[in-house]
Amino acid sequence: MPVITVTDASDARLADYRNLTDVALRRVLEPAGGLYMAEGAKVIVRAVAAGHRPRSVLVAQRWLDSVRYAIDPDVSILVASDEIMQSVTGFNVHRGALAAMHRPELPAIADVLRGARIVAVLEGIVDHTNVGAIFRSVAGMGADAVLVSPTCADPLYRRSVKVSMGTVFQVPWTRAEPWPGVLDHLREAGFVVAALALSPDAVALDDFAAQHRGRRIALVFGTEGDGLTRGAVARADATVTIPMYGGVDSLNVAAASAVAMWAVR
Fold it and tell me: 109-263 domain in CATH 3.40.190.10?
């Protein structure tokens, strides 16, 4: 495979890795350009194992052996110093490896739901860290799939992939469109749709889990600030809440997703 030592930060072959801290620019480049960024040797190897193909890989010399065995011979591996990597990307790449990955085509909703029993549905969650943490919870708690609303942050954004520890590659997911009409589709497919929200008529999570044990369940989680929209709540079979103590009204959405999926596992 071509292993290329790069000594100039202006090298054109580094174009995919420039200004990775600028979220606005990355939102334009990554989805539109058909790319996403995988960070860290373990994440890159997991992406390749899931069938994703790198366009190129950028590594520090000490991390070369941790990724080269997993990369096809026709993919360029660019080796650069820590200083050049930081200059190009805009941050300290302390995990030592990045890969510009070709973005796979998203599956149909029916394919994602086939055989699934527990599904997480994300509406408008804009924090990439939260999205990544939810995917890790889905994988760790044994849930089966994720549906992501059109306004939700990209699960394949670099920060989401990193926080998920690569579980975004192993958990089936796709965009949930049309929104919120897809919730009607879930109900028609036999799912009990539960909206996680603060509401006077909300059912406690434990009671909901006991009532619907063994059923197909879709748990719907809303944006960090305002929570679920009225349209999403109106399409749910039940509004569910996690009982809280100590004057705390709710959990962070990533923590709430872990608790909820554990309860209905």
Answer: no
